Amino acid sequence: MTSYFLKASQFPLASVCLQLRYSSGRGSGSRSMSFQKNSNPSPKLQFQLERVPHMNDFFPNVPSHPNPLIHNRHFHALMNGFFVHDTDMVARQVAIDTSDPTSQTHAYFPRAGPRERVIYKPEDVKAAIVTCGGLCPGMNAVIRELVIGLWYQYGVRDVQGIQAGYRGFYSMEWVPLSPKVVDHWHKIGGTVLGTSRGGFDLEKIISSIEKSCCNVIFIIGGDGTLRGALKIMDEVTRKGLRVTIACIPKTVDNDVGIIDRSFGFQTAVEAAQAAINAAHVEAESTPNGVGLVKLMGRYSGHIALDATLSSRDVDCCLIPEVPFFLHGEGGLLEFMEQRLKANGHAVIVMAEGAGQDLIPREGENSIDDSGNVANLDIGPWLSKQLKQWWKEKYPDRLFTVKYIDPTYMVRAIPSNATDTIYCTLLAHSTIHGAMAGYTGFVGGVVNGNYCYIPLDQVAQAKHFVNVNDHTWAWVRSVSNQPDFIKPALHATTIDG
Amino acid sequence: MTSYFLKASQFPLASVCLQLRYSSGRGSGSRSMSFQKNSNPSPKLQFQLERVPHMNDFFPNVPSHPNPLIHNRHFHALMNGFFVHDTDMVARQVAIDTSDPTSQTHAYFPRAGPRERVIYKPEDVKAAIVTCGGLCPGMNAVIRELVIGLWYQYGVRDVQGIQAGYRGFYSMEWVPLSPKVVDHWHKIGGTVLGTSRGGFDLEKIISSIEKSCCNVIFIIGGDGTLRGALKIMDEVTRKGLRVTIACIPKTVDNDVGIIDRSFGFQTAVEAAQAAINAAHVEAESTPNGVGLVKLMGRYSGHIALDATLSSRDVDCCLIPEVPFFLHGEGGLLEFMEQRLKANGHAVIVMAEGAGQDLIPREGENSIDDSGNVANLDIGPWLSKQLKQWWKEKYPDRLFTVKYIDPTYMVRAIPSNATDTIYCTLLAHSTIHGAMAGYTGFVGGVVNGNYCYIPLDQVAQAKHFVNVNDHTWAWVRSVSNQPDFIKPALHATTIDG
Amino acid sequence: MTSYFLKASQFPLASVCLQLRYSSGRGSGSRSMSFQKNSNPSPKLQFQLERVPHMNDFFPNVPSHPNPLIHNRHFHALMNGFFVHDTDMVARQVAIDTSDPTSQTHAYFPRAGPRERVIYKPEDVKAAIVTCGGLCPGMNAVIRELVIGLWYQYGVRDVQGIQAGYRGFYSMEWVPLSPKVVDHWHKIGGTVLGTSRGGFDLEKIISSIEKSCCNVIFIIGGDGTLRGALKIMDEVTRKGLRVTIACIPKTVDNDVGIIDRSFGFQTAVEAAQAAINAAHVEAESTPNGVGLVKLMGRYSGHIALDATLSSRDVDCCLIPEVPFFLHGEGGLLEFMEQRLKANGHAVIVMAEGAGQDLIPREGENSIDDSGNVANLDIGPWLSKQLKQWWKEKYPDRLFTVKYIDPTYMVRAIPSNATDTIYCTLLAHSTIHGAMAGYTGFVGGVVNGNYCYIPLDQVAQAKHFVNVNDHTWAWVRSVSNQPDFIKPALHATTIDG
Amino acid sequence: MTSYFLKASQFPLASVCLQLRYSSGRGSGSRSMSFQKNSNPSPKLQFQLERVPHMNDFFPNVPSHPNPLIHNRHFHALMNGFFVHDTDMVARQVAIDTSDPTSQTHAYFPRAGPRERVIYKPEDVKAAIVTCGGLCPGMNAVIRELVIGLWYQYGVRDVQGIQAGYRGFYSMEWVPLSPKVVDHWHKIGGTVLGTSRGGFDLEKIISSIEKSCCNVIFIIGGDGTLRGALKIMDEVTRKGLRVTIACIPKTVDNDVGIIDRSFGFQTAVEAAQAAINAAHVEAESTPNGVGLVKLMGRYSGHIALDATLSSRDVDCCLIPEVPFFLHGEGGLLEFMEQRLKANGHAVIVMAEGAGQDLIPREGENSIDDSGNVANLDIGPWLSKQLKQWWKEKYPDRLFTVKYIDPTYMVRAIPSNATDTIYCTLLAHSTIHGAMAGYTGFVGGVVNGNYCYIPLDQVAQAKHFVNVNDHTWAWVRSVSNQPDFIKPALHATTIDG
User: Fold this and answer.
1) Could you tell me if A202 and A235 lie in one domain?
2) Which residue among A277, A377, B462, C122 is least crowded, i.e. fewest CB within 10 A of its CB?
3) Domain count, chain B
4) Any domain includes A193
């Protein structure tokens, strides 16, 4: 057993069960066994210390060295409190219902930060950084800080950039990175390394890693990318390669689970304001003007939701998590009519994944390049529906719909200050974790604290807008938005 | 015993002590007594449910009514999960050291949100809103949302704006507010209501409140303002006036304790980037160029710290929490010389409260208008010191210092999206609390969750940069910033 | 002697003809006759003083009064040079070919500015302001300044806002405007008065003007609107109504002739940068990435051209004035292939009116609501063409096209400083002209000088990109953009 | 006949004198003689073609070559109208008083643009670029475009960057520049080459130029820099060195004469809005709040003036060209009192050179480093005066002054779109001129047309705000700003 997890008996809550949830396949049973000792027969409040894989799990007797940070000329790492210990943990759940605490599981993740001892000497590290998937504000900030942190804090001098996503491992030249090269990257949108979808060829990637003798790999990408990283992790383990896999989740949709939010999200919400403002101005400047804005969010409506809450100029926010319908009592059109009557204009913000069940799907485009059911474009469809509806109902009255799709202008920009600081600390957290020996993990923020989360958990967890929660309810109360309950259902609800 | 707190016996952690910390003077001993039942003789892990005053504490048998939100035409509040219960609590502490959990106290605050029953009928509410102290991004957003929430969610029609801070209660006309009036305020910097320092005349304020029959007062201000609010709360209690006091902390310095951060802080950090960028460009564009930026922060360096971390162009960040010195080994000038030699330029960001011990204090201006020891202006002082030092050391070499004080440009702007959403939810949270009967409280965010915190706690708590914590250490490692340890001390530290 | 300077004898200025061009129908022949005296029998260099209609032309003996500006308390208008005289003129043509000056006509317009005498007393003015057509940055700034100038400079107190364009004259309530009402309008995009297309019913408008006793009408709109204004001017003249018609051209496309540029244009060019930046980042961040941006410009490519020149990240700029073709030697696709090979990415900016001859026109949508041939959407069409071409040519290579249409985000924003100052001086110029008795005119800038231009001239004049001029050639040289000359033509050109 | 149009007979154009003004010392008498032929004994309207020095003037029989632009693969320069001829001229004066045209001189400058023949072969050019003086938005854009234009249009491959101003010629390494190096520079503020004041050592500079064999020098700087360039030009001429001197005026103050405006000026005016907005918000948010903003402008108030006109929130604009006084009737304080009474707040914008006669000058700092009379800081002085005045007059009333000096934040930023396009065309114009053989010239815009102006003229000409002109009068009428006329004078004026 590694020393950095509490033995259950050390945890002086007599009535607490320490239970390690550690997905099979990621670590052998024996390693996780020791955490499953349940010293108490009647567990009530469940504490669960999340197990993050460590190189020690796979390579017994990995030697460790003092953290090079202690030799830094300018600051003195020996002061009290500088190093984080493996017993420092961060709670996943902070809001509890004290009327029934037994129903809740309290998971804890290891806190991120520099450890006193690391498993790599500077001169032994050959690091690689890859970015995959669509663009997101802050990607360059993350890359820059990985290079800066490895170079200045840990003395690593061999950092390679993989170009254009996973395919870059085997089909393109690797780009040597240094502080000088990346110095101004955080002020550029997109990713200077390049990115792409697909191109995940496990065999070629592993072969390329072996050939290059690369031993610390930083992978920045969304859930698909993280699942790829898991496969690399498995294969590396299977082959007995001593390679650290460290990930940073990237999704402008903010739909990765467990972590508070993904980097770039705040920037995207801020940038979306310009589109909503324009839609609002267009709508207000003409009789019966409607402004439509489509924002990112295939499966979750976080950007649409937050952009709506921060704009204060939106009448209705449509997200994938909440079904709606157009015609009839309680429908969107009825609501729009009321708003237009009251204010003379209205603004709708919709996530791209909203209303997929309403849009007629034609045969040809039902499957996209990745083999998934293709997303249908709600923007033009809803725009057309609104115009048809009005023309039939009020053929003589002015009515205009102005539709804006600001997607690329929202995501292909540099991170704002809030996100840059986040990217910075994410990157440094992840470096500390990798140097300390963690592997198969992501660096993330949980309840405001940087910590390490098992990669397999993050790769699975989806983060939806909780429509039963207060935030969504508040949005609706704040904007007086309908909940699109059909009359029959509605009656039931009222009765209930 | 009020119904909204758990009885200790209901809390099925046998080894847990429930202890109510409730400052004397705010509530009577009898009310808090019931929470001090300690069912377990050997408490180890301390749970503490924070007691927020409630009108019921002062006026027994305050009648309650169904929340008017259930009658909202558009959305249907009856769905499961909409209303928040008094047993929903939010943890204050989320990062724990599992090696010694007994050393930690776990405080919980009531979660914010609409309650099923409220103590005010819409037509009985006469609300007033006042803003005090210096400007901060988002003040108008908070005011706007208080008006919007009271009006649309709770049907309140009598909302008054108090002009120019506390003095406005008795010396200026009150301004009737409505959704139409405040509609675009969130896009304006400052506070349309006006603000000022001082003017706190308890007697006149109370008299004005009594005369106006105002019964729900929203006070937005910093720690001084909150202490004033406490006095109003005490006096109102003493006089038996049925007046709700609800506060929202405002401090661009982010130096109010307990809450995650104050509103407007993220906007200020973002806005500060323009000043740092300008300083960096000026410094880089000339040989031995030094850029100096002074940011807000009399007692805490949060803005300077976050602005530094998000900029990535800063060589040194000076904050009140960390002493520094100029001359000699390990001093600022030595550090600057190294940086200038290495890069040809350097950027220093300083909080206004940094280095107060170094600046010679002349008799005349030692006391400011409020009777406090006046802050000395570090900007011009440090600028002069740098020039003198260089002129003496390298009289023939070019050297320029460009000093920027962007204070008003950082604080007199509208909130960005991140802060507007925060202001919105803060305001709505606070309304829900006031309508539900809480009083003497502030609405705030703790670990990402909106909750209610006793006013007296927030009025006392200061939020400093924890220089023993990882964030500060990381800043320093990230920027390779010195820790200004004098050689002797240094040696000791190393030995230690 | 160097060859590039004219010998004095080559410059045949001895014989100059002053000729007034004044369109028949706007003023009577007798008035213009007197300007056609040709004192020289062999005119070579033609000077032409443009005749702007004046109320005196239609109502002999219109009384005049001293300009109320002389009574302004704060500044003293009597100083030398304050008032502009009718003999102050502004040249339309400033770049001349001195090798053949006889070929050129030199037109001069009356300079704008306050006149010593005005034809309206403050209390006699009933002014109305109307905005028509699509949105453009600065509309609110113009409206605001018309109100401010009339109110503070000329003491006018009856200023009415017409809502939603021409139809607002007869179908909506007029809105009384005052400095207090319009105070912050210049910081809002769009037009608070509202606007719309169509709704021009001459009879109803005239009837409404008569009924309202409105006597000074400010009309802000594009060429269609100005042609409507001409009709109003004619009808008002025909009916002998003493009504001043003063116009300010509005077109975000910058396609109104004679004037240097239309207000809002600089703001739009600035705003377009965000879209081009995003397209560039998207293109650069992926292998063979193409960014497409569609900008406004149905008949002229000014926005596309200026946005291209100021961005420096654009590979190709397509405008209506320059035909292009896709396939074959010298075509766009060949050019794109070269750029992708050279740089790995490319950015195309296109005006919405470019390539209309290439896009297949389907029967149904050939006529738009105004009866014109409908514009076809080049964006999706070109995007599809590019994808098809690549797929056929390189089925195995990555290729992405990211298409951005930022139209509303470019036009529905407030004017930037450059445009606000322009709107301000335009509005004040126009007021001075109207008060001095000019009518049937527009206020505009010609070669940097504010002046008055006959309405009929501006309503006809189109401003295209001069593709034979240096600017366009420079764009192309600067971006190395092709001129899409088909091989055969090309050969001819070379031969010629 | 209306009185405001000239009769043809009043326009004495029959007799025109062509006169070349060419300052002695720059070209030999013989060259200019030929232009002084006066074919008419009674000159009335004076035409003057400005003589720009040409290498032919100094080196007879300089060979010329076809412009390499004709070989450009992508566009075809042979089309009609592409090349500019030496007979293409641009008028300096466009607004004339037709009542007395004889009083006016009409100067014409050669139009900028590519010539059919150039004097340099690509492989023979060794170009150098230097930036001097203070920062200004757009410097990097100019540098970038010089490199781009030389490289891609003229095939030049040897372009050197001189670091840190004139001193860089002899004391620092030269930096080879290429399109790859400068690609993103236009998005960076300041100058990547570096700049400094002083360091002008003619002998060392000439010696360095000789040693390097550099033959085309681009100098970017303000009036001091241009006077230095003149000295280099003279010395180069004296020594018979075949070196082209081409300049681009740089002054954020916009105080260089002849040209319409200097690059970066529009960006600075735009950036100043943030400071004025902040001052306005601070002033409005508190009783009797005064916002003070100091903007650049030692000798001319252009930035203050334009920033005032575009902001619409300024009560008073103080510029060097207009004296003011504080106390007594008609003074600033009286005006402020009126404004505070009327509105409760006020905003003052002042150019740094305003009120220099009012500020007490203390012995020590009367001479600055350059030997000039030092500028005194009006900001803190006026701030103090205002506070003292109020304290004496209304000791019991609130009064706050918020002073903002945004200088570096206004100038150390990248150029906006309007300025970037300007910098681009300026740089390309200047390249075309240098390649065509012009020397001792600046590229500039006159009445909207790019042209070449003799260096000596620009180095002398100052551009002040014309306080007798309409623009200033309008500012004052627009803001109702006082003209600070002392009562006695005032009476006289009224009487006159």
Assistant:
1) yes
2) B462
3) 2
4) yes
CA distances from A295 to A308, A336, A353, D224 (A): 11, 20, 9, 53
User: What would the two tokens of residue D316 be?
Assistant: 């008073």
CATH code assigned at C310: 3.40.50.460
Is the domain of A299 the same as that of A400?
A: yes
Query: Does D212 reside within a domain?
Result: yes
Q: Which of D460, D446, D456, D462 is nearest to D91 (CA)?
A: D446
pTM for the full predicted model:
0.91
Indicate whether A438 and A473 sit together in one domain: no
Residue C336 shares a structural domain with residue C484? yes
Q: In the predicted model, is pLDDT for residue C106 greater than 80?
A: no
CB atoms within 10 A of CB A276: 26
The reply to whether C468 touches chain D by the CB within 8 Å rule is: yes
What is d(CA C126, CA C115) in angstroms, rounded to the nearest whole number? 20
- D441 in contact with chain C, both atoms CB, cutoff 8 A: no
Of D14, D75, D476, the CB nearest to C477: D75
Residues 6 or more apart in contact with residue B466 via CB below 8 angstroms: B472
- Given CB atoms, is B278 within the 8 Å cutoff of chain A? no
- Report the alpha-carbon distance of residue A64 to residue A76 in Å, rounded: 21
Contact C66, C34 (CB under 8 A): no
Q: Are C297 and C352 in contact (CB under 8 A)?
A: yes
C253 counts as catalytic: yes
Both D253 and D205 in one domain: the answer is yes
The letter for the amino acid at B216 is V
The DSSP result for D167-181, as a single string, is THHHHS--EEE-HHH
CATH assignment at residue D195: 3.40.50.450
Condensed to tens digits (0 to 9), the pLDDT of residues B347-380 reads 999 999 999 999 998 765 566 655 667 889 999 9
Distance between CA atoms of residues A217 and D340, nearest Å: 64
B424, A312 Cβ separation under 8 angstroms: yes
Please identify which of the residues B57, B223, B253, B456 carries the catalytic annotation: B253
D416 touching C (Cβ < 8 Å)? yes
Q: Is residue D122 domain-shared with residue D251, that is, in the same domain?
A: yes
Give residue-wise pLDDT tens across range D202-224. Answer: 999 999 999 999 999 999 999 99
For residues C480 and C474, what is the distance between their CA atoms, to the nearest angstrom? Answer: 9
Confidence of residue B481 (pLDDT cuts 50, 70, 90): confident
CA D112 to chain centroid: 18
Does residue B440 fall inside a structural domain? yes
Single-letter amino acid code for the residue at A225: T
In terms of DSSP bridges, do strands B216-221 and B127-131 run parallel, antiparallel, or are they unpaired? parallel
A284 contacts on C by Cβ (under 8 Å):
190, 192, 194
The single-letter code of the amino acid at B166 is: Y
| Amino acid A46: pLDDT | 56
In a domain, C324, yes or no: yes
**At C448, is the secondary structure helix, strand, or coil?**
coil
Please identify among residues 245-274 of chain B the ones whose CB lies closer than 8 Å to any CB of chain A: 260, 266, 269-270, 272-273
Residue C179: other Cβ atoms inside 10 A: 13
Q: Is B472 found in the same domain as B331?
A: yes
Name the one residue in this structure whose structure tokens are 């071409």: C389
- Residue D442 has phi, psi (to 5 degrees) of -120, 150
Put simply, the answer to whether B286 touches D413 (Cβ < 8 Å) is: no
Same domain assignment for residues D326 and D473: yes
DSSP state of C100: -
ipTM reported for the complex, 2 dp: 0.89
For D4-69, give the DSSP string: TS--GGG--TT-EEE-----BTTB-HHHHHTT---S-SS--EEEEEPPPPBHHHHSTT---EE-GG
Q: What is the mean pLDDT of residues C227-239?
A: 97
Look up the domain containing D331 and give its range: 265-359+367-412+468-495
For C393-416, the pLDDT digits (tens) are 999 999 999 999 999 999 999 999
